[in-house]
Amino acid sequence: xxxxxxxxxxxxxxxxxxxxxxxxxxxxxxxxxxxxxxxxxxxxxxxxxxxxxxxxxxxxxxxxxxxxxxxxxxxxxxxxxxxxxxxxxxxxxxxxxxxxxxxxxxxxxxxxxxxxxxxxx
Length: 121
Prior knowledge:
The protein is mostly beta strands. The chain has no helices and twelve strands. The protein has one domain. Strand 2 (18-20) and strand 3 (26-31) form a beta hairpin.
């Protein structure tokens, strides 16, 4: 099943959990995190972008400024960092989309907003 995110949403495949170091030393808990708040993943699909107002102060006494189109800042294949609790986990399996975060291959996916991406690696 192929998911196509809407608006400024991004479908991200989380990096696999690391259980050993490069030298073969076993880690006590699986590690995927940078520090204690960010996790990494690879962008799989991106939405078309979103519409909104330019950042700034909107004066209530004046008409609203024109709505602008804001494209998504990332492309498929980009490795990104985002908050541990960002987005919603989804299951991309043959049975359809559910709320369970793992599919048959064991990959974990999340749909997150473009604004929740902290940086591109």
